[in-house]
Amino acid sequence: MSNQNMTVTIAGVEMKNPVTTASGTFGSGREFGEFVDLNKLGAVTVKGVASVPWKGNDAPRIAETYGGMLNSVGLQNPGADYFIENDIPFLRQYDTKIIVNICGHTIEEYCQVAEKLSDADIDLLELNISCPNVTAGGITFGTEPKMAEKVVSEVKKYAKQPLIVKLTPNVTDITEIANAAVCGGADALSLINTLQGMRIDIHGKKPVLANKIGGFSGPAIKPVALRMVYQTAKAVDVPIIGMGGISNGEDAIEFIMAGATAVAVGTANFSNPMVTIETIEGIEKYMEQYHISHISDIRGIIE
Fold first, then answer.
1. Which residue among 21, 44, 82, 283 is least enclosed by CB atoms within 10 Å?
2. pTM for the complete prediction?
3. How far apart are CA 145 and CA 147, in angstroms?
4. What DSSP assignment string belongs to 145-187?
């Protein structure tokens, strides 16, 4: 047993270590249960949940690209009622915290799902105001400060769990949106969601994705994500979950040094189902190597 203390607290919820999954890359945890001991994760962040089932976008919805991938899945999900009945009991078999990412096309839809989940046995809500794939207004909530503040403050009226707000990187100044979300009542922030990108099939002379434009994620976005986490940590006083291109413990340590309290591993799950556990072990190994007794000792140490 090592002496490294990796516990972190997000809005009053204690996690045994700072590693969770990025929404949309880990399903509800079932898909990865045979590869990963979910008991070892600090938290599982599930795929976006809406108040009613969403069918998502047309295929093709996934494309590989240098240093990452593009997706325009469009938040396909079976809805909150199904999630409460089936996925929460599954996850509660494990000693890990449950973070539920919620989505909506309108403020009313966000409030409906927060209300449905208000009495559910979950630990934290993550408000997705930043998905670039939903045409019906999804992108506008997180790119305009007043709108971001409004949706957060409305959802806070219905949410009984602490509210993490997930920020989009597709803005001029990330700190402006971060401050707006905190003004609206965000208890924590998570960033970044995907950048926007596209690929063209030059032989077929058409975009590779049916939706033309998709969310770009993977190792190539890490420097952008790290810069935004660093700037946001200096601008707000709430915990941050950093994400964007994290593939190992060293990547995670960079985000923590930049000011993140926790980190989420996303796209890397697709190429390496064991990546979350390897990331936790990598952080622990780094702490041992440099005789760091508590993870908070290195948080935000980059001036």
1. 82
2. 0.95
3. 5
4. HHHHHHHHHHHHTT--S-EEEEPPS-SS-HHHHHHHHHHHT-S
pLDDT reported for residue 168: 93
User: CA 83, 88, 94: angle at the middle one, nearest 5?
Assistant: 150
Pairing of strands 68-71, 97-102: unpaired
Contact 195, 216 (CB under 8 A): yes
How many residues are recorded in the chain?
303
Q: What is the CATH number of domain 8-53+75-193+216-298?
A: 3.20.20.70
Residue 21 phi, psi (nearest 5): -105, 155
Residues linked to residue 54 through DSSP beta bridges, in sequence order: 77
Tens of pLDDT, residues 71-95: 988 778 889 999 999 999 999 999 9
Which residues form the catalytic set? 131
Helices marked H in 83-235: 88-91, 107-116, 138-143, 145-156, 174-184, 222-235
HSE (side-chain half, CA atoms, 13 Å) at 276: 32
- Average pLDDT of the residues of the chain: 93
Q: What is the pLDDT of residue 204?
A: 97
Distance CA 178, CA 9 (A): 19
**Residue whose pair of structure tokens reads 């494990």 in the numeric block:** 94
DSSP secondary structure string for all residues of 213-267:
-EEEESGGGHHHHHHHHHHHHHH--S-EEEESS--SHHHHHHHHHHT-SEEEE-T
- End-to-end Cα, the chain, rounded Å: 33
| Residue at token pair 């506008």 | 140
For 78, the token pair is 């079976």
